Protein backbone atom coordinates (compact mmCIF):
# COMPACT_ATOMS: atom_id res chain seq x y z
CA UNK A 1 0.00 0.00 0.00
CA UNK A 2 1.85 3.14 1.23
CA UNK A 3 0.24 5.31 -1.43
CA UNK A 4 -0.21 8.47 0.65
CA UNK A 5 1.39 10.32 3.53
CA UNK A 6 -0.73 9.42 6.55
CA UNK A 7 -0.86 10.68 10.13
CA UNK A 8 -1.69 8.59 13.19
CA UNK A 9 -2.78 10.03 16.52
CA UNK A 10 -4.56 8.96 19.70
CA UNK A 11 -8.31 9.43 19.70
CA UNK A 12 -9.07 8.82 23.33
CA UNK A 13 -7.91 5.96 25.52
CA UNK A 14 -9.48 3.17 23.47
CA UNK A 15 -9.19 4.60 19.94
CA UNK A 16 -6.66 5.65 17.34
CA UNK A 17 -7.20 7.84 14.27
CA UNK A 18 -5.42 7.36 10.95
CA UNK A 19 -5.77 10.29 8.55
CA UNK A 20 -5.13 10.55 4.82
CA UNK A 21 -4.78 13.85 2.85
CA UNK A 22 -7.76 16.13 3.49
CA UNK A 23 -9.26 15.85 0.02
CA UNK A 24 -12.51 14.24 -1.09
CA UNK A 25 -11.23 11.87 -3.77
CA UNK A 26 -12.35 8.41 -4.70
CA UNK A 27 -8.71 7.29 -5.06
CA UNK A 28 -8.10 8.19 -1.41
CA UNK A 29 -11.27 6.38 -0.34
CA UNK A 30 -10.17 3.32 -2.36
CA UNK A 31 -6.81 3.32 -0.55
CA UNK A 32 -8.57 3.60 2.82
CA UNK A 33 -10.89 0.71 1.98
CA UNK A 34 -7.96 -1.43 0.79
CA UNK A 35 -6.18 -0.89 4.10
CA UNK A 36 -9.40 -1.43 6.07
CA UNK A 37 -9.87 -4.76 4.31
CA UNK A 38 -6.27 -5.74 5.21
CA UNK A 39 -6.91 -4.90 8.87
CA UNK A 40 -10.15 -6.90 8.94
CA UNK A 41 -8.81 -9.94 7.09
CA UNK A 42 -5.15 -10.03 8.18
CA UNK A 43 -3.79 -7.47 10.63
CA UNK A 44 -6.60 -7.44 13.19
CA UNK A 45 -8.57 -10.50 12.18
CA UNK A 46 -10.34 -12.08 15.13
CA UNK A 47 -9.48 -9.21 17.48
CA UNK A 48 -12.12 -7.19 19.29
CA UNK A 49 -11.78 -4.03 17.18
CA UNK A 50 -14.31 -1.71 15.61
CA UNK A 51 -12.98 -0.25 12.33
CA UNK A 52 -14.70 2.85 10.96
CA UNK A 53 -13.62 4.18 7.53
CA UNK A 54 -14.74 7.61 6.29
CA UNK A 55 -13.74 10.32 3.78
CA UNK A 56 -10.10 10.70 4.78
CA UNK A 57 -9.69 8.54 7.83
CA UNK A 58 -9.97 5.22 9.60
CA UNK A 59 -10.88 5.16 13.29
CA UNK A 60 -9.84 2.04 15.20
CA UNK A 61 -11.62 1.40 18.50
CA UNK A 62 -10.76 -1.40 20.91
CA UNK A 63 -13.88 -2.38 22.81
CA UNK A 64 -12.13 -3.79 25.90
CA UNK A 65 -8.71 -2.39 26.66
CA UNK A 66 -6.70 0.85 26.32
CA UNK A 67 -4.34 1.19 23.36
CA UNK A 68 -0.58 1.49 23.82
CA UNK A 69 -0.27 4.25 21.25
CA UNK A 70 3.41 4.28 20.22
CA UNK A 71 3.60 0.52 19.90
CA UNK A 72 0.38 0.18 17.93
CA UNK A 73 1.06 3.22 15.72
CA UNK A 74 4.37 1.68 14.63
CA UNK A 75 2.59 -1.56 13.76
CA UNK A 76 0.02 0.33 11.67
CA UNK A 77 2.74 2.20 9.76
CA UNK A 78 4.56 -1.07 9.08
CA UNK A 79 1.36 -2.64 7.78
CA UNK A 80 0.53 0.35 5.60
CA UNK A 81 4.05 0.28 4.13
CA UNK A 82 3.71 -3.30 2.92
CA UNK A 83 2.76 -4.15 -0.66
CA UNK A 84 -0.95 -4.86 -0.97
CA UNK A 85 -1.53 -8.58 -0.46
CA UNK A 86 -5.31 -8.62 -0.21
CA UNK A 87 -8.05 -7.32 -2.43
CA UNK A 88 -10.65 -5.04 -0.97
CA UNK A 89 -14.02 -6.64 -0.23
CA UNK A 90 -17.01 -6.61 -2.51
CA UNK A 91 -18.57 -3.27 -3.24
CA UNK A 92 -22.17 -2.97 -4.35
CA UNK A 93 -24.23 -0.73 -6.57
CA UNK A 94 -27.61 -0.08 -4.95
CA UNK A 95 -30.61 1.26 -6.87
CA UNK A 96 -32.95 3.14 -4.58
CA UNK A 97 -36.41 4.47 -5.49
CA UNK A 98 -37.26 8.12 -4.90
CA UNK A 99 -40.64 9.80 -5.26
CA UNK A 100 -40.25 13.40 -6.45
CA UNK A 101 -43.94 14.19 -5.87
CA UNK A 102 -44.55 17.87 -4.91
CA UNK A 103 -45.72 16.79 -1.44
CA UNK A 104 -42.26 15.33 -0.78
CA UNK A 105 -40.04 17.57 -2.96
CA UNK A 106 -40.60 20.71 -0.91
CA UNK A 107 -37.39 22.45 -2.07
CA UNK A 108 -37.41 21.22 -5.67
CA UNK A 109 -38.90 24.48 -7.06
CA UNK A 110 -36.19 26.53 -5.32
CA UNK A 111 -33.41 24.19 -6.49
CA UNK A 112 -34.73 24.39 -10.06
CA UNK A 113 -34.99 28.17 -9.90
CA UNK A 114 -31.47 28.61 -8.56
CA UNK A 115 -30.00 26.29 -11.18
CA UNK A 116 -31.95 27.77 -14.09
CA UNK A 117 -33.45 24.39 -14.93
CA UNK A 118 -36.92 22.89 -14.83
CA UNK A 119 -37.98 20.57 -12.03
CA UNK A 120 -38.06 17.65 -14.46
CA UNK A 121 -34.48 18.41 -15.48
CA UNK A 122 -33.40 18.41 -11.83
CA UNK A 123 -34.99 14.98 -11.34
CA UNK A 124 -33.33 13.64 -14.50
CA UNK A 125 -29.95 14.92 -13.33
CA UNK A 126 -30.36 13.48 -9.85
CA UNK A 127 -31.26 10.05 -11.22
CA UNK A 128 -28.63 10.04 -14.00
CA UNK A 129 -25.55 9.91 -11.78
CA UNK A 130 -23.99 7.20 -9.65
CA UNK A 131 -22.92 8.34 -6.19
CA UNK A 132 -20.22 7.07 -3.84
CA UNK A 133 -20.87 6.59 -0.13
CA UNK A 134 -18.01 8.40 1.62
CA UNK A 135 -19.26 8.46 5.18
CA UNK A 136 -22.13 7.44 7.49
CA UNK A 137 -22.81 9.90 10.27
CA UNK A 138 -24.79 12.82 11.73
CA UNK A 139 -27.63 10.33 12.33
CA UNK A 140 -27.33 6.52 12.42
CA UNK A 141 -27.55 5.48 8.77
CA UNK A 142 -27.27 8.99 7.28
CA UNK A 143 -25.30 8.55 4.06
CA UNK A 144 -23.02 11.26 2.72
CA UNK A 145 -23.05 10.54 -1.01
CA UNK A 146 -20.47 12.26 -3.22
CA UNK A 147 -20.39 12.64 -6.98
CA UNK A 148 -23.20 15.17 -7.36
CA UNK A 149 -23.28 16.91 -10.76
CA UNK A 150 -22.20 20.55 -10.58
CA UNK A 151 -25.64 21.72 -11.71
CA UNK A 152 -27.13 20.30 -8.49
CA UNK A 153 -24.60 21.82 -6.09
CA UNK A 154 -26.50 24.10 -3.75
CA UNK A 155 -25.65 25.45 -0.26
CA UNK A 156 -27.37 24.19 2.85
CA UNK A 157 -30.43 26.18 3.81
CA UNK A 158 -29.48 29.25 5.89
CA UNK A 159 -32.15 28.35 8.44
CA UNK A 160 -32.42 24.60 9.15
CA UNK A 161 -35.88 23.11 9.55
CA UNK A 162 -36.84 21.84 12.99
CA UNK A 163 -38.33 18.72 11.40
CA UNK A 164 -37.31 16.83 8.26
CA UNK A 165 -39.26 13.66 7.43
CA UNK A 166 -37.78 10.18 7.54
CA UNK A 167 -36.74 9.17 4.04
CA UNK A 168 -36.34 12.77 2.80
CA UNK A 169 -33.77 12.99 -0.01
CA UNK A 170 -31.69 16.15 0.12
CA UNK A 171 -28.91 18.15 -1.51
CA UNK A 172 -26.21 20.16 0.28
CA UNK A 173 -22.98 21.42 -1.24
CA UNK A 174 -21.46 18.67 -3.35
CA UNK A 175 -23.46 15.87 -1.70
CA UNK A 176 -26.81 14.15 -1.65
CA UNK A 177 -28.27 11.94 1.05
CA UNK A 178 -31.32 10.40 2.73
CA UNK A 179 -32.57 11.24 6.21
CA UNK A 180 -32.85 7.85 7.99
CA UNK A 181 -35.25 9.20 10.61
CA UNK A 182 -37.21 12.34 11.37
CA UNK A 183 -34.86 15.03 12.61
CA UNK A 184 -33.88 18.68 12.28
CA UNK A 185 -31.92 19.37 9.11
CA UNK A 186 -30.74 21.99 6.66
CA UNK A 187 -30.47 20.10 3.38
CA UNK A 188 -32.59 21.02 0.36
CA UNK A 189 -35.31 18.37 0.10
CA UNK A 190 -36.15 17.20 -3.43
CA UNK A 191 -37.89 13.84 -2.85
CA UNK A 192 -38.50 10.94 -0.51
CA UNK A 193 -37.26 7.35 -0.44
CA UNK A 194 -39.51 4.59 0.98
CA UNK A 195 -36.58 2.31 1.86
CA UNK A 196 -35.52 2.38 5.56
CA UNK A 197 -31.83 3.29 5.76
CA UNK A 198 -31.27 2.10 9.32
CA UNK A 199 -32.76 -0.73 11.37
CA UNK A 200 -31.19 -1.30 14.82
CA UNK A 201 -32.84 -4.73 15.05
CA UNK A 202 -30.76 -6.13 12.19
CA UNK A 203 -27.26 -7.56 12.42
CA UNK A 204 -26.14 -4.91 9.94
CA UNK A 205 -28.36 -1.92 10.82
CA UNK A 206 -27.21 0.05 7.75
CA UNK A 207 -27.21 -2.25 4.72
CA UNK A 208 -25.12 0.09 2.54
CA UNK A 209 -21.40 0.38 3.36
CA UNK A 210 -18.78 3.09 2.87
CA UNK A 211 -17.38 2.65 -0.65
CA UNK A 212 -20.62 1.32 -2.11
CA UNK A 213 -22.39 3.11 -4.97
CA UNK A 214 -25.94 4.40 -5.05
CA UNK A 215 -28.13 5.28 -8.02
CA UNK A 216 -31.60 6.72 -7.60
CA UNK A 217 -34.57 6.09 -9.89
CA UNK A 218 -37.84 7.98 -9.97
CA UNK A 219 -41.15 6.39 -8.93
CA UNK A 220 -44.73 7.61 -8.83
CA UNK A 221 -46.63 8.19 -5.60
CA UNK A 222 -48.60 4.92 -5.83
CA UNK A 223 -45.35 2.95 -6.16
CA UNK A 224 -43.88 4.85 -3.22
CA UNK A 225 -46.87 3.89 -1.06
CA UNK A 226 -46.52 0.24 -2.13
CA UNK A 227 -42.77 0.08 -1.37
CA UNK A 228 -43.30 1.77 1.97
CA UNK A 229 -45.80 -0.91 2.99
CA UNK A 230 -43.47 -3.65 1.70
CA UNK A 231 -40.61 -2.18 3.75
CA UNK A 232 -42.75 -1.94 6.88
CA UNK A 233 -43.66 -5.65 6.71
CA UNK A 234 -40.10 -6.64 5.82
CA UNK A 235 -40.55 -7.95 2.29
CA UNK A 236 -38.98 -5.13 0.28
CA UNK A 237 -35.52 -6.00 -1.07
CA UNK A 238 -33.44 -3.12 -2.51
CA UNK A 239 -31.88 -3.80 -5.90
CA UNK A 240 -28.15 -4.40 -5.84
CA UNK A 241 -25.40 -5.65 -8.15
CA UNK A 242 -21.68 -6.08 -7.65
CA UNK A 243 -19.72 -2.97 -8.51
CA UNK A 244 -16.73 -3.63 -10.73
CA UNK A 245 -14.34 -1.02 -9.34
List keywords for this structure.
four-stranded antiparallel beta sheet, alpha+beta, CT_C_D, eight-stranded mixed beta sheet, 245 residues, PxpB, Cyclophilin, single chain, Gyrase A, domain 2, Sensor histidine kinase inhibitor, KipI family, 25% helix, 2 domains
Task: Write a structural description.
- The protein has 245 residues and is α+β, with helices and mostly antiparallel strands.
- It has 2 domains: 7-81, 2-Layer Sandwich (Gyrase A, domain 2); 92-242, Cyclophilin-like (Cyclophilin, Beta Barrel).
- Helix content is 25%, strand content 29%.
- The protein has helices at 26-43, 69-81, 108-115, 119-128, 221-232; strands spanning 7-10, 15-19, 49-53, 57-62, 92-99, 131-136, 143-146, 161-164, 168-172, 175-178, 183-185, 188-192, 213-219, 239-242.
- A hairpin with a 3-residue loop joins strand 3 (49-53) and strand 4.
- It starts with 6 loop residues before the first strand and ends with a strand.
Order of helices and strands: EEHEEHEHHEEEEEEEEHE
Question: What is the CATH domain class of the largest domain?
Answer: Mainly Beta
Unreliable stretches: none
Ends apart, CA distance between termini: 17 Å
For CATH, the homologous superfamily of the largest domain is named as: Cyclophilin-like
Q: Overall pLDDT, averaged? A: 91
CATH fold-level assignment of the largest domain: Cyclophilin
Strand count, sense and closure of the main sheet? 8 strands, mixed
Q: Please tell me the CATH architecture of the largest domain by its name.
A: Beta Barrel
| Helical residues, percent | 10-25%
Q: State the shape.
A: elongated
Number of domains: 2
Instruction: Give the strand content.
Output: 25-35%
* Class based on secondary structure composition and strand pairing: alpha+beta
- Strand arrangement in the largest pleated sheet: 12-9-10-7-6-13-5-14
* CA-atom Rg in angstroms: 20 Å
Say how many strands there are: 14
